[in-house]
DNA sequence: CTGAAAGCGCTAACAT
DNA sequence: ATGTTAGCGCTTTCAG
């Protein structure tokens, strides 16, 4: 194993010089720097992570807690996780993957062992156990998601309320008056993750302003569940001409069912989705959608964490502005008695 | 920050005693053990990870390299990653998430910095750059997937050839004679990940033995691509009565298209999928399928890694035996002229 | 601009 | 069964 001392000897300088070449924390003459760098190269030196962490009390590791329940919008989770990992490397950090299974004690463990310099938490619940601990912690934390009380915490999330409003506006602009919302599975609402409710309230508020009638139904992602929900919606509100879907798993079944019901999309019914772009693009009818910007969220989270670790940066709630992409699933409302 | 010395003082013992209580590497009298444990509890002590790694040259971290391309069978990846993380914790290890973006140099970095004690690599290509490095490495590595040359390497994977054979057998047993295989996207074959080819060869071999006619078409996951592929298959082989799908994204489009073509599943056409159970269960017709046992693969990989780290365990290729679950998408071949 | 040296908190001989 | 102590490899004062 090659150590700093080996490099120092090989380059004919002292250990501290090598260390400073590496950290750039004091000025080094061009010649020594080059000599040291050559030695590092030649010997294939890599600083020992443990020693470095011990001496500097910085591990250069960011802990990422992902939700254990593997049932829900898994692709987004993975996308965020990967975005976090790649962005972190960009700043010289590695990422530790925690499942949050151990709950608050996991936070304590990381904090106590100094395994990570900071934490990023995904899919935080409105009243999460871990929040009090995070507020007390000496190490910075950033949440992806928005808890009920954000004081003393940094958060990054899509502005779901604005996303809801955007959907309402888009459909109103196309002349629609009766809209049905197919939401996340009931479990999501029960877990109080918040984002589903925020979407809904944005949707409701703007619908009110625009004079739209709204019907909301939570719905499991299975084909059967979507089928039942859609049937019910058409029974209760036969005049429904547009759907807003916020449930990755339900989009494909919804499109299939509309086809089965002999409703053309977008001629007879319009559909606007809130989902990752990938899902929207691959659907049987490319979906007009508001994207859940997974990559951007991961990147933002890391940037905030790094800023805090550098002393800059404060507690901050970043709500990413939603953008609606027009594809092929939403069009003008069919005017009764006007068969085109 | 609470240190080992603090605990020692509080408990009235020496530092080494505390260390040994923690590691169990030498016998401690019940009374001192209890005293020490109480002190640890009271002070909320957590061993410093860096110091421990430095002194013991073991970080208790396993590096997991996941593929960066976020386009392919992402849900399985996430499931494996989570299984790895939870299983690892079970053995006292944490998991470092690497994207493999940096390729071989990432392996060198981890190896050189002693950041992790071992590595697990997912989605390894047949002739992966990183394999030579892994063979030379002092630290154990386990692959999830099967490269061309496995000498000096431990691997865990589903026995895809057997999975292919199993599909052929099941369909043959139901009386089918002409089978079409909808495969992964062409890119997957080009990347030479191997598993798709292995499935195909198992499928071909057993089909030969059982006298089945086989048609194979790689296929993108988009609705349009599946549509084109299915159309082509029915043109070229109108007698096709069964499909084998190995492409998560294609299953739903396939079912929708068959419906559109007025072919009932399973009465007119049978479908057998090779995909995670979750996908099979949630499809519009619950799919008879061979599961990709993500959890089991993750668990096995960690167990092998831990065994190697403990000195037990050798290089070994574990091929998990596939299991076919009968659901509702495959049935007896419709006999022409027998309208039931 | 560079060196020397004192730890960082823990483990693992080596003692007893 | 327990204590003493010498490092592990690096960062960072303190000196020059």
UniProtKB/TrEMBL annotation, chains A, B:
Pfam family, one: LacI
Domain called HTH lacI-type: residue spans: 2-56
Classification via InterPro entries: HTH_LacI (IPR000843), LacI/GalR-like_sensor (IPR046335), Lambda_DNA-bd_dom_sf (IPR010982), Peripla_BP_I (IPR028082)
An example Gene Ontology molecular-function term: transcription cis-regulatory region binding
Keywords, comma-separated and alphabetical: DNA-binding, Transcription, Transcription regulation
SMART domains for this protein: HTH_LACI
Keyword 4Fe-4S tagged: no
Keyword DNA-binding on entry: yes
Xref: CDD domains: HTH_LacI, PBP1_LacI_sugar_binding-like
Protein name per its UniProtKB record: LacI family transcriptional regulator
Species per Swiss-Prot/TrEMBL record: Streptomyces corynorhini
